[in-house]
Structures are given as C-alpha cells and as structure tokens.
Amino acid sequence: MNANREHQCDVLVIGSGAAGLSLALRVAEHGKVIVLSKGPRSEGATFYAQGGIAAVFDESDSIDSHVEDTLIAGGGICEKETVKFIAENAKECVQWLIDGGVPFDRVENDSDEAPRYHLTREGGHSHRRILHAADATGMAMQTSLQDNVHNHPNITVLERHNALDLITADKIGGDSDTVVGAYIWNRNDEHVETVRAKFVVLATGGASKVYQYTSNPDVSSGDGIAMAWRAGCRVANLEFNQFHPTCLYHPESRNFLLTEALRGEGAFLRRPDGTRFMPDFDERAELAPRDVVARAIDFEMKRLGADCMYVDISHKPADFIEKHFPTIHAKLMELGIDMTKEPIPIVPAAHYTCGGVMVDQRGQTDLSHLYAIGEVSYTGLHGANRMASNSLLECVVYAWSAAQNIIDNINSVELPSSLPCWDESQVTNSDEEVIIQHNWHELRLFMWDYMGIVRTDKRLERALRRIQLLQQETHEYYSTFRVSNNLLELRNLLQVAELMVRCAMERKESRGLHYTLDYPEPAEESGPTILVPNKLSE
Predict the structure, then answer these.
(1) I need a labelling partner for 253 at 20 to 30 A (CA). Which of 368, 420, 498, 518 fits?
(2) Residue ranges of the alpha helices (H) in 232-345?
(3) How many alpha carbons fall within 13 Å on the CB side of residue 481?
(4) Domains assigned to the chain
(5) Residue-wise pLDDT tens for the chain (538 aa)?
(6) Catalytic site residue 290?
(7) Which pathway is recorded for this entry (predicted)?
(8) What would the DSSP string read from start to end of 8-76?
C-alpha cells in the first residue's frame, strides 16, 4: 500500500459533469487542472439529462420573463438577484457551449451565417426558451465537453478516483478557513493519495442516492455536500428534493424514467387492482402538476402497503403507442413488458437536490479557495422547486463566474509546499463488508418512508434517530478498516441525510417540494433554511 503518492495542480475540480468540465476548460489556459471522476468520466447526471437548457434566444421572449417564471416556480423563496444574474448571463454561456461544438437542434432551412435554434417549452416557462439536442441534451453536452477536455494539454482527468476529504491549511500551520487540497481514493489500485492545489472546486452533483428510488446514476451520493460540511461550510434548503412521479419499477432497470408525455397522450394511473385514483386527488386527474401526482402515488402506496402503482396506456391502439413512444416501448419489451397490452409498474423517484453548499455569485463557499458549482451548491436559483431546464444553465453560468474569479487570483495564490500524508497505520482490511451493505439499504429505505414525498414530525424524528445510530456504527467501522468506495459513499450519504432531515425539521410549513401533514399550508413569511456547522441543536 502506497499512501504517499501526491499530485499537484493550480485547480482541482472534483466532478466531471457539465459544471466541472466547463470550469476546467475555462481556467486551463491559465494553469494546470486536475479533474476527478468517480467512475468513467461520462457517468454523471449531466449525461442522462433529457430536456434541455433554458436561455432567452427568441426576440419575443425576455430576461424579465425568464426571471419571473423562475421566481414563481421557486415558491416565493428564490434569491431574486441570483435568478437575475443567471438569466442575464444565460445566452452568452450557452453560446460558449455552441462555439465549443454542442449540436443543439436548429430550425430547418436556417443558414449557417445566422443559425436559428429550435426552442421548446417546458413546465413553468411562459415562452419557448429551451435549447435541446433531441431528447438527449445532456449526452450531447457531456460528449462535446469531454472531447474538448481530452484535447487540452493542461487538463488531466483521473477516472475512478473519489474525493475523500478536503484538506485545510491548519494541517500545515495555517488558517482552518482556507482549503489547500484534498485526500483522494484511487479505486484502480486502492490507495489514498493527496492533491495539492491553489483552488478546489466541488462539482459533485446532488444526493438523490440517499433514497431507495432515484432517477440518478449511482455516483450521486452527496459527496461534495458532506465534504464541505465537514470542512466548515454552511448548507441550505436541503429539505427540497424534487421527485419525478413515474419511474419504472423493475429490478433490472432502477432509474428509467417514463415521460410525462404518456399521461399527456391519455395514459391512466391505476392501483394494483386496476382502478384509477388520480380523479380522487385532483380535478385535473393524470394531468395535474408533477408534485401533486407524486404525492398521490406515494399516498396510495403507503395506504395499501403496495410496492408500486401502474401507468396504463394499453387502451390506445398499438400502432399509436409504438409511433409516439418508440424508445420506451423498445426498452420495456427488452424487460418483458408489452405496454400495448398491459400496465407499466411505476414508483416516484428522487430526481434533483435543490439545496446544497452555500455560495456567492462567484461560486465561492464560506472557505477561502473553495468553490461549489452545479447541483452540489445552493445559489438561490431554485428556491422551493426547480423549474425545468434551469439546472444545466446554473452549471454553465456558475462555471463561468467561478472560473473568472479563479483566473483573477491564480497568480497571487501560492501552491502549498507540502501536505500531511493519509495515516492508515491503525486500520486493517475489512472482513465485514456486509455491514456496509445492510446499513446502506436501511438508510435508503427509511429515508424514502420518513423523509420522502410526504413528511410528518414523527417520521422526521424517527429518521434522525436511525441516522444517528447508523452514523455511530459507520464511524466505528471507518476508524477500524481501510476505506472502500461503498464505505466512503455511505459515510457521505449519512451526513447528507442528517442535514436533509434537520432542514426539514426547521421548516414549519408546506412549500414547494417540502410537504408535511403537520403544517399543510405555506407560512406568510418564509426564506431559506440555513444550517451552520458546530451549531446544530442536539
């Protein structure tokens, strides 16, 4: 075991999605960049984003309208200055993606001299302002950014490397409020290494893996939020977790989303006995808003003790279904489900983390030289609910803003001369990996039941007690055995789960994505929920 391997760079970027790669490309002309990727570099939420990216490209649209739509969707607690900042810089940052080769769909018969982009409209938007690449915008963005990063001599991508913890300057006789690098776990040959850096950027995505059902890839385990909190950063609004109402319920495909267009084309939601239930909850039935539908499905599952509900479009002609939903039809047929003849099993799934590490408009956290951009951060853009296609936009605008701030300061910051090595002299190899697996499943199950779509004070108290018990067990395990990928992710998920539950316990109202039976109405006055390290009530 070699624990002394050390890397050095000007900027360490933790995460390889839209936010991390955009920032890496912007700063690479000014210094050496290392990008950490937990798995293959494409395995992140960006790659799976279907919708698009919002920006005002149409003359009939306006920045003021984009701002207003976002504020309404955010349930009254967005930071208005942040929303305005992002909307004003949206077009320029999206144009940077276009100049970098992202193939957004164009209007047919447009000219290369003055291309016009096909703009679509999604929930919450009052105008067509969504640029997209068919229904795989994230894949197009990720692929283009990866190609540009691969060809840049100043950027090194380390695949299958987890960030383990941030290193602050007090470890080398300096200030505890300054970040100087990170410990990283090399999964290829299983040892801990250090990275010295002038600046560290968290671009680790969200934390939806804390739930039993999620649309996110496996890497979305809240690592950046947990690391920042342990280092001393504030977090905010982690009670707001967006759930997609219809995710396929099947053991061989745990994160396949079934588009809302199914219901738009006449699909019904049914109980296991075949009866419809949405008319009991909302006069708009299956066409009610996403949060209403998700709550109704959750309610019926809990009431009946059922594993899933069903979406059923089999009453429509088979050729109609195959024409309108060819991708879904083909995927389901692979799994032995014929949607032209039978209902499809579904559950709601955790989709997006609206809160995160608190940052300013430059992406700076509470610690010097530490930035957080993308889904890991709380900028104030989303408020109590995220509007469609604002998330990829937040990634690229804050990548630009943070990059500019880093570039302005890169020559005035000194690279730390040395960092302490990781000490594993007191630990051994584990022979009890089953403990991690058991705790992992227990956490994701009770977070779904107690901190899910509908909450109560009692459920939140139960969740917190169980989290604290698992944290004790995991801490003992972490202190005794060498690290592993599952152990690192469990440690981080438990930390983020605690922060989510504590945020939810602070909010004595229902607003946006946070719905509690004990306080079903919104409060007259409200704002963000902010947690401060070392000040949590026991």
Answers:
(1) 498
(2) 261-264, 290-304, 318-324, 326-334
(3) 18
(4) 4-235+353-404 (3.50.50.60), 240-349 (3.90.700.10), 431-522 (1.20.58.100)
(5) 344 689 999 999 999 999 999 999 999 999 999 999 997 766 666 766 666 899 999 889 999 999 999 999 899 999 999 999 999 999 999 999 999 999 888 887 666 666 788 888 777 788 889 898 876 777 888 899 999 999 999 999 999 999 999 999 999 888 889 999 999 999 988 889 999 999 999 999 999 999 998 888 788 899 999 999 999 999 999 999 999 889 999 988 877 888 777 887 899 999 999 999 999 999 888 888 777 889 899 999 989 999 999 999 999 999 999 888 888 899 999 999 999 999 999 999 999 999 999 999 999 999 999 999 999 999 999 999 998 889 999 999 999 999 999 999 999 999 988 898 888 777 777 667 788 889 999 999 999 999 999 999 999 999 999 999 999 989 888 888 888 888 899 999 999 999 999 999 999 999 999 999 999 999 999 999 999 998 764 4
(6) yes
(7) Cofactor biosynthesis; NAD(+) biosynthesis; iminoaspartate from L-aspartate (oxidase route): step 1/1
(8) EEEEEEE--SHHHHHHHHHHTTTS-EEEEESSSTT-SHHHH--S-EE---STT--HHHHHHHHHHHTTT
Q: How many CB atoms lie within 10 A of CB 426?
A: 7
Q: What is the pTM of this model?
A: 0.91
309/292 Cα distance (integer angstroms): 15
Token digits of residue 107: 């209007």
DSSP category for residue 209: G
What is the C-alpha to C-alpha distance for residues 15 and 194, in angstroms, rounded to an integer?
16
Q: Which residues, in sequence order, are CB contacts of 431 under 8 Å at separation 6+?
A: none
Residue keyed to tokens 């989510």: 500
Task: Produce one character per residue of 459-484: b if its CB has 16 or more CB atoms within 10 Å, e if not.
Answer: bbebbbebbeebbeebeebbeebbbb
Q: Which of 290, 455, 491, 502 is catalytic?
A: 290
